[in-house]
Amino acid sequence: MAQQVTPVRTARLGRALGPEPTSVSGVVLLLPGGEEVSARRPSPLATASVRTLGRRLSRAGAVEGLAAHVVHYRVRGWNGSEAYLAHDATWAVDEVVRRYGDVPVCLAGIDMGGRAALRSAGHEAVNSVVALAPWLPEQDVAAPPEPVKQLVGRRVLIVHGTNDERTDPELSFRLATRAKKANRDVCRFEVHSDGHALHQHRQEVHALTEDFVLGALFGRAFARPVEDALQAPPPLGLRMPLAAGFGRSLRK
Questions:
Q1: DSSP letters of 11-49?
Q2: What is the DSSP-derived secondary structure letter of residue 77?
């Protein structure tokens, strides 16, 4: 049984990545990875890993008024039923509404942050979710499965490396399959031969995420692979390979 911890710190939003637009019309919240059980402070390395993606999104969405913020959790651990990372993500969406008003929000998480993004998607301000190599629990017959009802009405992108040895890609496929039954706007890409950090095809993964986030928040046309994945029935739309050179094809 997971130990319970009581965080004494408070969650907070990092400063806007890149120049904050004069008029904000959409927000992406970057959710770093974490650990299954821990009362320690969030890892600076995990936070740094999402900043690179956040800066790219901020630059790409500057014309539309995109603001990108990293969510700083109270602690780095999910910690069982306490689900601290998910609660901190929900707090962050509330904070966005307080600061910017009625603007659409995309939750973009990596590793345990991916689980937090998926779990917190039910907030009314959230219109889209990105989960990169999400950490998901093994299915226990005695416990309810990871919820998916909160994903209804949201566009959802999941990306997972097939050689991931930290988070099982089969678990994200199973979750996506259940979510797709209630929400057609779910797509999942597999990055063949890549590991948990998705280093080998990072440019393609970031280009895919950029295309999805700007399409979901601002109505830009999705690239053909994303559109095809959203429209395709399972399992095809949930095992789409991410082609090498995806980013270069977008710039043509």
A1: -EEPPPSSSPPSS--EEEEEE---BSS--SPPPHHHHHH
A2: B
One-letter amino acid for residue 128 of the chain: S
67: buried, middle or exposed (CB in 10 Å: 19+, 13-18, 0-12)? buried
Question: By three-state DSSP, how is residue 221 classified?
Answer: coil
Helix axes 84-100, 112-119, angle to 10 degrees: 60
The dihedrals phi and psi of 32, each to the nearest 5 degrees, come to -70, 170
Residue with tokens 């901190």, as numbered in its chain: 88
| Residue 119 contacts residue 149 (beta carbons within 8 Å) | no
Q: What is the pTM of this model?
A: 0.94
* Confidence class for position 6, pLDDT limits 50, 70, 90: low
Tokens of 198: 């998705």
Amino acid in position 168: D
| Nearest alpha carbon to residue 112 among 143, 138, 136, 128 | 136
Mean pLDDT of 235-241: 93
Residue 6: count of CB within 10 angstroms of its CB: 10
Residue whose token pair is 């039910």: 122
- Measured over the CA atoms of residue 93, residue 41, residue 81 and residue 37, the dihedral's sign is positive
Buried b (16+ CB within 10 A) or exposed e, 86-105: bbbbbbbbebbbeebeebbb
